[in-house]
Amino acid sequence: MTETKTSAPDFSKxxxxxxxxxxxxxxIKEDKKWGYDLYPERRNETYKTTLKNxxxxxxxxxxxxxxxxxxxxxKCINKSPMVKLMMGALKSSGCAIDIRRHISCEACxxxxxxxxxxxxxxxxxxxxxxxxxxxxQGVLSHEMIHMFDYCNNDLDFKNIDHLACTEIRAAxxxxxxxxxxxxxxxxxxxxxxxxxxxxxxxxxxxxxLAVRKVTAEEALAxxxxxxxxxxxxxxxxxxxxxxxxxxxxxxxxxxxxxxxxV
Length: 262
What we know:
Elements: H1 16-34, H2 51-55, H3 62-79, H4 81-92, H5 99-102, E1 103-106, E2 114-117, E3 122-126, H6 133-152, H7 160-174, H8 178-184, H9 195-211, H10 216-231, H11 247-254
Parallel strand pairs: 1-3
Antiparallel strand pairs: 2-3
Helix pairs in contact: 3-4, 3-6, 4-6, 4-11, 6-7, 7-9, 7-10, 8-9, 9-10
């Protein structure tokens, strides 16, 4: 019986350009899988404007948007009780924030207003979406919850249960007032029971789907697995914040009682 020999492929004939193109394509696939394609500057790319958005006034002012965004970040850091509380909690946990190093204003995909990059331990504020102080405060508070979790726990953002947990906590502590629940369709004057929990689940689901290439069923299953424990974890704020209330100020004043340096 004759044994047929298969010749090994000659990799010397593969050009460096082909290898670069292959590596680039694989990186793009990986970036999309983990959500990094939503933040082009994270991949050393320039944000690409379109003529339509320029004519609509949404783009073409990137330098001005960046300056205004950085101004709003500075205002929030100095004025917002929530942001100051989170910065104090991070400092007390050994993860003090240097705003020049840990916060970056960038142009992003319009589907997101901000993000947390665990690879660089950096918060991204989307300058083309979060265009006023209130929105920037929301982004900073939300993303600082992720930064706090990453600092204090063995958090793996590629583990969908870990991701679901930190998204539940961020939605629970910084997003889901009754008004937010009504806007999302999770509550009404006739449907109040468990409205807050449903709002948190909806917000966490949207956040997971925005940054991970998984099905809605997979994302929802992970949220349900970790929900009881993560929903009841109120660190470091200590309470769920209601809209148009004194909750933010009360949480800030109470922070020293829990050992946070504010």
